[in-house]
Structure formats: C-alpha cells, structure tokens
C-alpha cells in the first residue's frame, strides 16, 4: 500500500480558495459561507498560478462498517465514537459516507439502526458526515463462500413487513440495500424498496443470470464489492463474477486495495466497464485509520496485520478491510497506471451519482471539496478536505 498522504480536514465555515477546477483545469475561485458555496467564478490563468491546488469534489464512501477503532456493529453506540470515526474519514479525504450495518439477528439489527439514527438526528456534524445508511443483510446468500464474514444463521428471505420496519428507521435518509436476488421474495422487495427511493445493490449472491437480469428489471442498480463474497474456487465456465459482468445496468463497487481484487482483475474490470459504472469503496472496518491489532466487527474478533489485511485469526478469508479512502484511490491509480485526475471520479462523482447526490462545486451547493496539491510527477502530494461545518 502507498504511504499515507499528508491530509487534513478543514472546519472553516466560511472562506475562499482559488485553484484549478477538476477535471478541466480551468482557474476557479470558490467562496463559501456557512458551509454553502456562494460564488464559483472562473478566473484568468497565469504561469504564477501553477502551484495553486486542484479543487475537486470530496470522496464519498458507500460502505463503511467502522473506522478509527470504532465498530458500527456494536450495541449502544455513542456520539463521540461516531464523531471520531467521521473525523478519521474526513482526514482521509472522505466528505460523506454510508454507515453500513451488516447481517445480524433482524430485531437486533433494527434496534442498532434505531440507536444510530437517533444519535445522527441529534448531531448536525454527524448528519453532515453520515450521508445515509447501507444495510448489507440479512437477505443474503447463506451458501458457503458467498456469505463471507456475515453470520449465515441470521440470513432470511425478505418480506414486505421487513421493509416497513426498515423504513421506520431510515425515515427520509438516503438508504442503500444490498441483497441476494435469488432469495424468495427478493424481486418484489427490490421493486418496493426502489419505490421508496432507496438504492438496491446485489451482493453476497450466487444468483443465476436470469435472476440478476430480473433484479435489474425490478430496479437494482448496483453490485456490491464485485470480486468478493464468493468462493476462492469458481467454475471457470459459469460463476457469479462472469454473470455479474455480463449483466448490463449494474454500477460495480470495487475495493481498490490490490488485495480484495487482484491488480490484473482490477484492470480487466476497468476494461469491460465504463468509468461511470465503477465506484471505489473501502468496505472499511474498525481497523482502518487505526494501528495494526485486533478489532471487532460485530460478533467477530478480527486481526489487522501490518499489511492492512483483515482476517479472522488463523483463517485466510478477508473480513472487511483496513483501507482508507484516499489510500484506496492512490492504490487504484497505481494499479491502473493512471494519474489521480483520471480516476478521481470513481471515488467521488460516481458514488455520489449512484446515490442521487449533488457533487458539483456550484453556488447553492455544499462547500464539500478537496484541495489537492500535486507533486512534480503529477501524483498526489497533499489533500485537504473542506466540508460544511454546521453552526
Ligand atoms: Zn460484504
């Protein structure tokens, strides 16, 4: 993994900054007040402006299970722990994320969600950082190799009453649901969830081609951490990876740490998917943004090594990651042999568009952006996240 970049989060509620607009390089002066952009003016360029920063939309991460030593899967979460995780993500260039809850006993999952939602509701800083929820489970495949770190005993088929219970927790907050479309009742559930404005992504699944195609027709638009949550050994002629890549209409999430998806497969997926169909996610757990050691992911105790790989002690399969958003983007650039500017969209614009969020640096929009200095080779030298700070 690349060394961590110097990166800081700014908490200025008002200010102005002039730099190169990403991606076209036009010189732009941004002014913001109370966390909202009030002016975005194009300025004449000159040679002495070369060292000004690039101004780009902040990174967005749609799958974060924990960060900075904080595990979101624990009962009785507290606001200070959530704020610590949010600050850690901001220091890694991430302006907003989906707090992700994984499979558990369904009533217990709902109760955890209720507690988190009330903490978020009471704290404007958490509302700013936690853009919404990603509920990954319990409607997943319990087949060996597909359930990953999720506990198969809590997996179940989705029912319409479940959606009502979940809706009560989500309220109007953006919500992404990952499910396995081969589950009985899943297609109707996808239709009902998308009618609520939720996004549905397929994952932890061994669905047939027909089931995947039907899920897209029902409203599914994503595939969660493509290349993971499947067995180590797959049928070379017909497997979930081929089927997912063969299904139009799915925006794929990739974990760009060079470990969850091999560099060769990472490059291949970029060749057969347009850039607008790929977003990067960390799938981070508590070990991300924290030193190597043992951390919890719900009921599991996991070990994060110095190599940033998170495993169940004594086992080989991965369970979440210790990846930080900015480090993931750097690693993706390295794997693809491309400058950061060419792939920044997969960490920022694509996930935002997928969720239907605005990302442009325009008047009236949130002042949530990164000021990026390049090194002499055009690589990332430093990244400073600016994000709205509620009064
Ligand atoms: Zn997963």
Structural classification: alpha/beta
Helix content: 25-40%
Trace the largest sheet across and list its strands: 6-9-10-11-12-13-14-15
Uncertain segments of ≥5 residues (pLDDT<50)?
Answer: none
Coarse shape: globular
Q: How far apart lie the N and C ends? A: 38 Å
CATH topology of the largest domain: TIM Barrel
Structural Rg = 20 Å
Biggest sheet architecture: 8 strands, parallel
Q: What count of structural domains? A: 2
**What is the average of the pLDDT values?**
94
In percent terms, what proportion of residues is strand?
25-35%
Find the CATH superfamily of the largest domain.
Metal-dependent hydrolases
Question: What this model shows, in words?
Answer:
Helix content is 28%, strand content 25%. It has an eight-stranded parallel sheet with strand order 6-9-10-11-12-13-14-15, sandwiched between helices. The protein has eleven helices and 20 strands.
How would you sum up this structure in a few lines?
This protein is α/β, with parallel strands linked by helices.
Strand and helix layout:
Elements: E1 7-10, E2 15-21, E3 27-33, E4 36-42, E5 54-57, E6 59-64, E7 66-67, E8 70-71, H1 79-91, E9 94-102, H2 106-121, H3 124-129, E10 130-136, H4 160-170, E11 175-179, H5 186-195, E12 199-202, H6 209-218, E13 222-223, H7 240-245, E14 251-254, H8 263-272, E15 278-280, E16 293-297, E17 300-304, E18 310-311, H9 325-336, H10 340-347, H11 349-355, E19 369-374, E20 380-386
Parallel strand pairs: 1-20, 2-5, 6-9, 9-10, 10-11, 11-12, 12-13, 13-14, 14-15
Antiparallel strand pairs: 2-3, 3-4, 5-19, 7-8, 16-17, 17-18, 19-20
Helix pairs in contact: 2-4, 9-10
